[in-house]
Amino acid sequence: MESDAQAERFDRLYRSTFRRVMAYCLRRTSESAAHDAVAEVYAVAWRRRKRLPGDEHDAALWLLGVARNVLANQARGQRRWSRLLLRVAERAEVAPPPPGGPDLSAALAGLSEGDREILRLAYWDELSHQDIAVVLGISPGAVATRLHRARERLRPRLGFETKEAHHAPR
């Protein structure tokens, strides 16, 4: 039988991390999907509560990793649904491009999901390279490399020259 101490620890973890996990999900999906994702994150955490990291910071990072996986599963399901709708629809409507110059949302939308994710973790979630490494399951060195490359791909979309373009012969 489960001890009261384990239940209390889980309750403390939930109360201390809920806002952060919810904010993480809200920045990546719609409000209703975020609520569904957070519920699934804590359901997974409850099922695996005996294996949760002992340190609260590490447990919070573990929860963000679970949230990332839950959101990826949601996105795959949504893509399957969208493909089904496209097959059923007579024709797909294409949305007109937004007026004016590129904005951050449009610039990010043009990047790969991997680039968007690492930029969000670094700048919106304000995680260190070490923490991003834990969430993504990669080394801190790989985080630095991927983050550098993502920023380099984002720069021209925002109207900034890249180093390569600046040094290119004219």
What would your notes on this structure say?
The protein is mainly α. Helix content is 69%, strand content 0%. It has eight helices and no strands. Helix 2 (31-47) crosses helix 3, helix 3 (56-88) crosses helix 6 and helix 5 (113-124) crosses helix 7. The N and C termini lie far apart (74 Å).
- The level of helicity is 55-70%
Query: Which H/E pattern describes the elements?
Result: HHHHHHHH
**Beta-strand percentage range:** under 5%
In round numbers, the mean pLDDT is: 81
Tell me the number of structural domains: 2
CATH superfamily of the largest domain: RNA polymerase sigma factor, region 2, helix turn helix motif
Q: Compute the number of helices.
A: 8
Low-confidence stretches: 90-97, 165-170
What is the topology?
Elements: H1 4-26, H2 31-47, H3 56-88, H4 104-109, H5 113-124, H6 129-136, H7 140-154, H8 163-166
